[in-house]
Amino acid sequence: MLTLTNLSFRADQHEIISNITASFPEGSFTVITGPNGGGKSTLARLIMGIEQPTAGTIHWNGTDITKFSISERSKLKIGYAFQQPPRFKGMSVKKLLTLAHGKPLTHEQCCEYLSAVGLCANDYLDRDVDQSLSGGEVKRIEIATLLARDLELAIFDEPEAGIDLWSFAKLVETFQQLHQNKKISILLISHQERIMKMADEIVVIENGKIAKRGARDEILPNLMQDFSACEFKK
Predict the structure, then answer these.
(1) How many C-alpha atoms does 140 have within 13 Å on its Cβ side?
(2) How many structural domains comprise the chain?
(3) Where would I find the H helices in the chain?
(4) pTM score over 0.90
(5) Residues 7 and 73 in one domain
(6) Do 198 and 175 form a contact (C-beta atoms < 8 A)?
(7) Over the stretch 106-155, which tens digit does the pLDDT of each residue have?
(8) CATH assignment at residue 224
């Protein structure tokens, strides 16, 4: 279980996250949404350890991980997919998947992970994760690295951004399959209605605070009224 207690984060005298308290049970699928600039990505980075809170605590399965590094949280089987993933010149897709998995992967296993995000292994395994790949391709490869890991908490920051409709459909299938494995908790930032429809719970973040939180069928019907069409997508 992930537990946030009075979590806050300030930067340049601005409070980005303000006194958030929430818990997320094992095996839950939670979509975090809300207006742009409301603090969603900052909250995700705090949970992963990319940013350190200015107040409050983060507990994972009973352990206080507030001061833990990214590597320490990774060892606790927490994974994170960036909205804009890094590139690695000289690192092949196969090597990156192998590092994520922690041991050698067969061609068939690599194909399985890449196919889940809409990529053909034969076209990508020997390519470097560098500027020769589009933003959408790098995004899908990063998501594949999370699939290759034995995670207990997977955090996705707008995984649909920059991805074509066919690949998006494949991602939706992948998230559905992940959710069927109740050992994995999923925190996913999104404005996509199709993704929200898969969630157990939706959390709306506005101005660094939880504005609304509840079961999917309770929260989703009202979101179209709350957010503009450019922020909330079918």
Answers:
(1) 29
(2) 2
(3) 40-48, 70-75, 93-101, 107-115, 121-124, 135-147, 165-180, 193-196, 216-226
(4) no
(5) yes
(6) yes
(7) 989 999 999 888 888 888 999 999 899 888 888 889 889 998 998 999 99
(8) 3.40.50.300
